[in-house]
Amino acid sequence: MSEDFYEVLGVSQDATEEEVKQAYRDKATEYHPDVSDHPDAEEKFKQIKKAKEVLTDEEKREMYDRVGHEQFVEAEKRGGAGGPGGAGGPGGRGANVGGMGGIEDLFNEFFGGGSRSRQGDDLVTRISIDLEEAYRGVDRQVTVRRPEPCETCGGSGHPPSADERTCPGCGGQGQQTTVQQTPLGRVQQTRTCRRCEGEGRLYDERCATCDGDGQVRREATLAVDVPAGIEDGQTLRLEGEGAPGDRGARPGDLLVEVRVEDHPDFERDGADLHHDLVVSFPQAVFGDTVAVPTVTGNAEFEVPPGTQSGRTFRLEGKGMPELDRRRRDRYGDLYVHVQVYVPESLNNDQREALETFAEAGGEEVEPPQSFFDRLKNSL
Ligand SMILES: [Zn+2]
Ligand SMILES: [Zn+2]
């Protein structure tokens, strides 16, 4: 992207719009990818189109001439996708640069201008809830320290009785406009007056509470409505509860990160829960009615006769509520994973019974001898 748009079209800097259009038609015919066998036809054609687009638009061309090729391309890249300022910023500044927010931003950055009032910062806090609370939803209170408009002075930074005068720095305009020669040509720049910070007025007293800032840091306690079905790591956004913006700009948001504590009985997977159920060998063989925990209390569960270890059963609707509001009142499932418990030691009766069981099935079991048994037998 080293070639500037005039070079791309092969016209002079003072070419008329008609000359630009004619040059575009000629070049486009030459490089159109459908007809040209030039190796870079496609890329070249794009450049030609871009050059024509900018140089036939009075505002864009003016900006292009002012900031130069590299800066212009860079700014378009940044602002092209509907960047900030595209929606016509405050103060009517959007009027003469319609749809070119990126360029305007760059321009401000470059020349230190800009009187746009800044939106307040987002603040972040965290809360921790347990699985039952995540199941039902819960109202929590969070306390955050955040800047707030000073109540003593109503955010103005000075007592109402303070004597005021017009700011001599800007003559009450709140902005200073200067014309400067820069390497990019003659540039008129407008910046917020440093002396009055854009207010246009000066006061002979400062508010003692906020020392003239108009803001104080204060603890605020806010109610957070945590919806049922929330998952670990999700964030709730309390709009407008962050730090206040400058001079009436929108305040930021308060982001509440939610941690859902682990539960000893369940593994969670979205709206589904998983539970490991341990049953005895006879329970697995004969079947049994057992209690399995759910988030709201125990539920009866029928272990069918002949249940294999590792088998999974689905208890429909016994999981967590769906967070998605379109699926409100729907619940996930509880998966019960059956594990047959193998006893590690047996009393004599159990041993005999099991040996009888094995024999009855025609099974011969020869347990490996333990170290001590072997020792005993060798003596
Ligand atoms: Zn001023
Ligand atoms: Zn104050």
List descriptors.
5 domains; 3-stranded mixed β-sheet; HSP40/DNAj peptide-binding domain; 15 strands; binds zinc ion; 10 helices; alpha+beta; 379 residues; 4-stranded mixed β-sheet; Helix Hairpins
Care to give the gist of this entry?
With 379 residues, the protein is of the alpha+beta class.
> How much strand?
25-35%
Shape: elongated
What are the low-pLDDT stretches, counting only 5+ consecutive residues below 50? 80-102, 104-116
Specify the CATH architecture of the largest domain. Answer: Orthogonal Bundle
For the largest beta sheet, what order do the strands appear in spatially? 10-11-15-14
| Discrete helix count | 10
Radius of gyration: 37 Å
Beta strand count: 15
Computed structural class: alpha+beta
State the end-to-end CA separation: 93 Å
Order of helices and strands: HHHHHHEHEEEEEEEEEEHEEEEHH
